[in-house]
Each structure stands twice: as structure tokens, then as C-alpha cells.
Specification:
- The radius of gyration is 36 Å and the shape is elongated.
- A hairpin with a 2-residue loop joins strand 2 and strand 3.
- By secondary structure, the chain is α/β, with parallel strands linked by helices.
- It has two domains: 243 residues, ABC transporter type 1, transmembrane domain (ABC transporter transmembrane region fold), CATH 1.20.1560.10; 243 residues, 3-Layer(aba) Sandwich (Rossmann fold), CATH 3.40.50.
- It has a five-stranded parallel β-sheet with strand order 6-7-8-4-9, sandwiched between helices.
- It is found in: Cell membrane.
Length: 600
């Protein structure tokens, strides 16, 4: 039993897990949709049986009216109104039309129910994954392979949609085959058993398929292709300059051949199954037909109906086997989706108050107090016993060489990371009551990173992303503050000018200006610029820094910078370059009024 489970249950585990998720998503919708299929199938079965009285009207039924296979039908027909021993054609046609219309209506409702269920399930899969992604801790996202997430969101969810289609198709065909089997047993038990054994034998003969293995291989290849393409597009400028595009083309060609070979093997296997069912089924039913006439002495009308039923059964079993193969081929990607979703969920940010961000009474001039904070990435220590104050309505510059923890410290202040030791305190008289909730930071802080993020949208929509409740006058005023007014006015459509993917139509400095304008428009209490002016020319930087100095009455500014020209505009400086992790004693940063840092 253990070996059986390992061999078969393990092989179909991903597929069974998918079925379980389908059921858990909405048991009622799934059961109701299948109930509609059952109703439709039974009505269809009645429609098939109604072929017999149709044949009766033509006189065929009279050939074997006393045949044992039709005794129950003969009794039924005797209860119906007859004329000269025959059922009136108007009655037969009316009943037949009623049944067919009922089948059509039920099929319509069944398909509509199935489509609604499928689309709702697809939406649920996408939304739940994205929800878990956006709620995941920043520290986890830094370590995770977000390009894998991008592949699952773009390609994987489309495949899962196909998996849903194949799975529901499998369910539908199982139900319909069961109904046809019942109809066959009602007409002729012996012939139905013989036919069933034949069909099962064909199914067993074609059951061997490595669809899941091929699906896993295709998943790995497709993911590699997606990552290679993403990397190439990000570095296409460098690749063209150094004539390295042929390297990408070679990688793409190698992957394409592997994907093609894998797909050909899989599709070839499906075509073999389809051909086998058609050819062997035709031979089998020829023999069944001969046996029926010569040995079982089944009447012609019953035999016609039975052959129609068996043809439907074998066609649907062929479809079932192909649906199962396609489902198994896609199921490894569902496993990848499930792992990713659960990883995000297990690394979810706490929805409760963040304990290390505490609102406390502080001196009026202090906005934030960083107290004895230490932080490490795994075994690598980044900060150790760091203490400093951020004063209100001041421009504070954080400087130092790369890798000493400047940006990490800002991430700690923003609550994206949690310190290993120490605390970060906020002035309760300044910071809003709900600042300790991660979702409320946008109400009081704006952050401009070194790598500027812009949408493939208009200038207006980009700079009003954080606050879309601003009028035209304020937009132009803020654009003037960041030395971007003339730039925008010179463009063909002004604020409605499209800037391309990630602002590709703009220079690096122009993108930084718009990003800073976006941050200022949100009217923050705290503005953090992480190397956000590094691509600006000295004149533009001077205009922006002078504007920030004028805004100090309403906001506090933290600058992370390397350039001395930027640091010169700061009221206070925290020099991380003097911080040495190898020292055995704690080092505290104390900001002095003369824009220097004393080390204790």
C-alpha cells in the first residue's frame, strides 16, 4: 500500500491539491455547477432514449416488440395514446422537442455557472497571491526572487486558468459518461458490460504518460526564459554597446529548442492517445455490433441507440484522458504558485502595532530618536548600537561610504525592517496616532529612492500618485520648486505628456525631479531622499535644495548623499563613515549644532 501511494498518489498530488483548493474556494459554487451538469446529462440521456419511440413510429420497433431488451419500453409505450398501434407523430415530436429544449437550456445554465465559477476562481488566485505579496515583510522580499513571482503572476496564472478548464472538463465528462453508462445498462446490461470492459482496456493501454514530468521541465524552462528576457531588457543598452546581444540570442535559442522538443513530445503523446481511441474504438465497436446481432439478438432500434451511447462514452473517455494529461502537465506550476503564496503568507507583516516603533514624549525639537539600534542581515552585522536624533524642521544629512548601513538605517526608521536590538522612538506630539501601523506611514512620510520608479503614464498621473487631490496651481508651483516647470511646459502635451516605460523618454535628472515633486505634493511631515539628487546638474540641485530649505517650516528632511555639494545644504550631519563595527564598545552618534558628529 505504501508503495502504491508513493507511486500513484505522489504522482497526482499536485493535481489533487488543486482539486482541494477548487472545493475550498467555494464548495457551493463547485457542487452547484456540477449538479447542473448532472441535470443536463440526465436530460440528454432521456433525449437519447426518446430516439426509440421515434424509430417506433417508422415501424422499426414492431420488428422486435417482444424482445426482452425492450419489455420495459413496450409497457411504457402501451400507456401512451396510440393510433392504429403507433404513437402519433405529433406527440413524439412534441416530447422530443421539449426534451431537446430542456437539454439546451440546462446546458446553457450549466456552462454559464461553470464560466462564472472559473472566472471567480481565477480572480481569487490572482488577488490572493498579490495580497500575500504586498503584505510580505520587506526583509523577506529583499531575499526572495521576485522575478519568480513575476513569472507566476504573468504566465503562471494563465496556466492555472487552463488547469481549471481542464479539471472542470474532466469532472463534466465523468458525470456525462456515468449517465450514458446508466442508459446503456437500462437498454442492454450484457452489451454494456462488454463495451465497458473494452473501453477500460483501451484507457489502461494508453494511461502511461509522463505528463507531470514534462510539465515540471517546461516550468523550469519557461521560468528561465522569462528571467533571461527580463535581465536582457534591463541591460539591453549595455548589451548593444558591448555587442553582447548574440549571447542572449544563443541562450534564447537553446531554451527554445528544449521547450519545442518538450512540447512536441507531449503533443505527440496526446495525438497517439486520440488516434488509438479512434482506431481501436472503431475495431472494437465493429466486433460489438456483430456480437449484438449474431449472439445477443438485440433489436435494431436498441442497437442504434446503444452504439450512439458507446460512441459518446469512448469519445468522452478520450477527452478525459487528454484533459488529465494536460492537467498533470500544468499541475507543477500550480505547486510553484502554492509554495510562493504560502511563503508570502508565512512572512506576512504583522497587522498589529509595530512594537519597535513607539510614540513617546520627546523634546519638542526632536522628531525621531534612534536608540542603541543593532541590525544584521543573517551573519553580516550592518549596524551596532547606533544612536542619534532627527530634529524637527531641519535638513539632516547621512553620509558615509557605500555599505556602512545608511539606507538600512532609513529602512529601519520607515518600519520596513525590524532592528535586532534597540528602539526607534517617535515624538507623540508630531507623529500621527496611527503611525505605528505600517499601512499609515503614507500619511506622514515620503521617500524618494536612488532608483527612481515611474509609471508608463502621463506626467500628471505620475506626480499625483501619492496625492491625487491637488489642483493645477499647486502642481505647477511644486514643479517650479524642483526646477521642472520649464521642462514640462516645453513638452507637447504638458502635464499630459506620456513619459514611456519607467520614464524612458526622460533623462536621469528629469526623472529625479518628477520623483521629488511627487514626494513634496504628498505634504509629508518627514521627507527622505536616498541619493535622490545624484543625477542632477549642480544648478538644478541648488534650486531643489534651496526649495527644501524654504519648506523646512512644514517638514523635516533626511538626505542620504555622497556628494559634498549636497551635504553642504544640511543643517545637521550624521557621518556613518566614522562608525566601526569591529570596535568592542558601543558607538553613539550625537548630532551637534555645528553640523558635525561627535563619537562617544
Amino acid at each position: 500500500m505504501a508503495e502504491f501511494y508513493k507511486k500513484y498518489a505522489g504522482k497526482y498530488k499536485d493535481f489533487f491539491d488543486f482539486i482541494r483548493l477548487l472545493y475550498e474556494y467555494s464548495p457551493f459554487q463547485l457542487v452547484f455547477s456540477q449538479a447542473m451538469v448532472i441535470l443536463s446529462s440526465f436530460l440528454g440521456g432521456i433525449g437519447v432514449v426518446s430516439l426509440v419511440p421515434m424509430l417506433s413510429y417508422s415501424g422499426w420497433l414492431a420488428q422486435n416488440k417482444s424482445g426482452s431488451d425492450l419489455n420495459w419500453l413496450s409497457s411504457l409505450w402501451q400507456q401512451l395514446p396510440m393510433h392504429d398501434g403507433q404513437i402519433p407523430i405529433t406527440f413524439v415530436l412534441s416530447v422530443y422537442c421539449l426534451i431537446i429544449c430542456s437539454v439546451s437550456m440546462t446546458n446553457y445554465l450549466a456552462e454559464l455557472t461553470k464560466i462564472k465559477f472559473m472566472k471567480n476562481f481565477e480572480r481569487y488566485c490572482r488577488e490572493s497571491l498579490i495580497q500575500n505579496l504586498v503584505n510580505a515583510r520587506w526583509e523577506y522580499l529583499l531575499k526572495s526572487k521576485l522575478k519568480d513571482s513575476e513569472y507566476v503572476l504573468n504566465v503562471g496564472l494563465m496556466k492555472i486558468s487552463a488547469l481549471t478548464t481542464y479539471t472542470l472538463s474532466l469532472f463534466n465528462n465523468i458525470i456525462k459518461n456515468s449517465v450514458y453508462l446508466i442508459v446503456g445498462l437500462m437498454l442492454s446490461t450484457g452489451l454494456t458490460v462488454i463495451s465497458l470492459i473494452t473501453v477500460i482496456s483501451i484507457a489502461i493501454f494508453f494511461k502511461k504518460s509522463n505528463s507531470a514530468g514534462m510539465g515540471k521541465q517546461e516550468l523550469d524552462l519557461s521560468r528561465s526564459r522569462q528571467i533571461n528576457l527580463s535581465n536582457f531588457l534591463e541591460g539591453i543598452k549595455i548589451a548593444k554597446i558591448h555587442e553582447l546581444t548574440h549571447e542572449y540570442l544563443k541562450q534564447e535559442r537553446d531554451i527554445s529548442f528544449k521547450v519545442m522538443d518538450n512540447n512536441i513530445k507531449f503533443l505527440s503523446n496526446q495525438m497517439k492517445i486520440k488516434f488509438g481511441y479512434t482506431a481501436i474504438g472503431a475495431i472494437a465497436f465493429t466486433l460489438i455490433f456483430l456480437i449484438s446481432i449474431s449472439l445477443l439478438q438485440i433489436s435494431i432500434p436498441t442497437l442504434v441507440v446503444l452504439l450512439f451511447v458507446y460512441n459518446q462514452i469512448i469519445r468522452r473517455i478520450s477527452t478525459m484522458q487528454q484533459s488529465m494529461s494536460y492537467a498533470l502537465n500544468i499541475s507543477p506550476l500550480f505547486r510553484n504558485y502554492l509554495i510562493l503564496k504560502n511563503d508570502f503568507l508565512s512572512n506576512k507583516e504583522s497587522s498589529n502595532v509595530i512594537p519597535f516603533h513607539t510614540r513617546v514624549p520627546l523634546p519638542k525639537d526632536i522628531l525621531i530618536k534612534v536608540k542603541q539600534v543593532s541590525f544584521s542581515y543573517g551573519e553580516k552585522a550592518i549596524l551596532k548600537n547606533v544612536s542619534f536624533d532627527i530634529h524637527r524642521n531641519k535638513i539632516t544629512a547621512i553620509k558615509g561610504p557605500s555599505g556602512v548601513g545608511k539606507s538600512t538605517c532609513v529602512d529601519l526608521i520607515l518600519g520596513l525592517l525590524k532592528p535586532d536590538d534597540g528602539s526607534i522612538l517617535f515624538n507623540q506630539s508630531v507623529v500621527p496616532m496611527d503611525v505605528e501601523h505600517a499601512t499609515s506611514k503614507k500619511k506622514w512620510v515620503s521617500y524618494v529612492p536612488q532608483n527612481i520608479f515611474l509609471f508608463n503614464d502621463s506626467i500628471r498621473n505620475n506626480i499625483t500618485w501619492l496625492n491625487n487631490d491637488v489642483n493645477e496651481e499647486k502642481l505647477w508651483k511644486v514643479l517650479a520648486l524642483v526646477d521642472a516647470e520649464n521642462l514640462v511646459r516645453s513638452m507637447p502635451n504638458g502635464l499630459n505628456t506620456m513619459i514611456g516605460d519607467r520614464g524612458v523618454h526622460l533623462s536621469g535628472g528629469e526623472r529625479q525631479k518628477l520623483a521629488i515633486a511627487r514626494a513634496i505634493l504628498s505634504s509629508p511631515t518627514l521627507l527622505i531622499l536616498d541619493e535622490a539628487t545624484s543625477a542632477l546638474d549642480p544648478q538644478s540641485e541648488a534650486v531643489i535644495m534651496q526649495s527644501l530649505a524654504a519648506l523646512k517650516q512644514t517638514m523635516t528632511v533626511i538626505l542620504i548623499a555622497h556628494r559634498e555639494s549636497t551635504i553642504d545644504y544640511a543643517d545637521e550631519i550624521i557621518d556613518f563613515g566614522k562608525f566601526n563595527l569591529k570596535e568592542e564598545y558601543p558607538l553613539n552618534f550625537n548630532v551637534l549644532e555645528d553640523t558635525t558628529v561627535a563619537m562617544n
